[in-house]
């Protein structure tokens, strides 16, 4: 049972006393109806058969690539991954972790900026070996449509990203340089 597994992981990893973000590997299906896999073995079988994919691998692989799905396939214990540009995993964190930056509402950069902030605060990024989630297909949101169609929207998002980087630099000094240089090289 997923919630039992998460509760167990939280206790075993001593999350209440530790700065860690537990990453739940994300997958997706293109089918509107899906029998949810009951185990990791069943999920891997569906992945191999092509009824599931690693999340957004065909449109935005950078968002979840640092999860290291190849390692996850055989992992039996949580493993640590490093922050990389555009990483936006789904995470389980303590309630007192940094909040989402409210500048990033709508589509774009909400999860990316959050993980960046967690990394800047030296949270460990730990992938859970037996957890997974599956994204189901749905119609595009109003906000992603605005992002795709409006140069003004994309320009505003870029301005907010720059402000966010400046704030990180003020709060974390030289340690925040890696985020700025990573973003500039994109």
From TrEMBL:
It is found in: Membrane. It comes from the Eukaryota. One of its GO terms (molecular function) is metal ion binding. Pfam families: Glyco_transf_49 (PF13896). The keyword Translocase does not apply. Its main location: membrane. Keywords: Glycoprotein, Glycosyltransferase, Membrane, Metal-binding, Signal-anchor, Transferase, Transmembrane, Transmembrane helix. One of its GO terms (biological process) is protein O-linked glycosylation via mannose. It is a single-pass type II membrane protein. One of its GO terms (cellular component) is membrane. PANTHER family: GLYCOSYLTRANSFERASE-RELATED (PTHR12270), XYLOSYL- AND GLUCURONYLTRANSFERASE LARGE2 (PTHR12270:SF23). This is LARG2 glucuronyltransferase. The lineage of its organism: Eukaryota, Metazoa, Chordata, Craniata, Vertebrata. The gene is Large2.
């Amino acid at each position: 049972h997923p919630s039992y597994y998460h509760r167990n992981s939280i206790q075993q990893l001593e999350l209440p006393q530790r700065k860690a973000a537990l990453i739940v590997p994300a997958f997706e299906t293109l089918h509107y109806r899906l029998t949810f896999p009951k185990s990791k073995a069943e999920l891997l079988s569906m992945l191999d058969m092509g009824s599931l994919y690693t999340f957004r691998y065909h449109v935005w692989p950078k968002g979840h690539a640092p999860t290291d799905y190849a390692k996850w396939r055989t992992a039996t214990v949580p493993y640590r991954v490093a922050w990389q540009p555009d990483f936006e995993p789904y995470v389980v964190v303590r309630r007192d972790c940094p909040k989402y930056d409210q500048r990033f509402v709508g589509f774009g950069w909400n999860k990316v900026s959050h993980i960046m902030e967690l990394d800047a605060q030296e949270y460990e990024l730990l992938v859970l070996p037996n957890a997974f989630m599956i994204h189901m297909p749905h119609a595009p949101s109003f906000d992603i449509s605005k992002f795709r169609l409006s140069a003004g929207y994309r320009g505003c998002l870029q301005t907010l990203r720059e402000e966010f980087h400046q704030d990180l630099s003020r709060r974390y000094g030289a340690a925040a340089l890696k985020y700025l240089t990573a973003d500039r090289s994109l």
